[in-house]
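Students often ask why we bother encoding 3D structure as a string. The short answer is that it lets us treat folding as translation between two languages. Here is a chain of 109 residues written in the first language.
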Amino acid sequence: MASDVKPRVKVPKSAAAGEVVTIKTLISHPMESGQRKDSSGNVIPRSIINRFTCDFNGVNVIDVTLEPAISTNPYFEFDAKVDAAGDFKFTWYDDDGSVYEDTQSITIA
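And here it is in the second language, the structure alphabet:
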């Protein structure tokens, strides 16, 4: 895992049963498209986060395939309905085979 790749996630600490909450995620990653050249004229190899998923208590909430045109440090904001307390598991998949994960818990108020 590259040391400069860092996921950040914002999940409310609690919600009412059945409430729809907003989840925010950002991962620090250079996202090299494979289309640019270095100062010597050599193509810089593609290196992107190619997939992002979020599961809540083992059920998929979002699954996104990313393409080379995605910006550096991809940010996602989405809503999820919370029927019970549990864990959101966030997973980012890198072209180099690295997998970055974060888990955030939410309680029912």
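Translate back mentally: The longest strand covers residues 19-28. Keep this in mind for the problem set.
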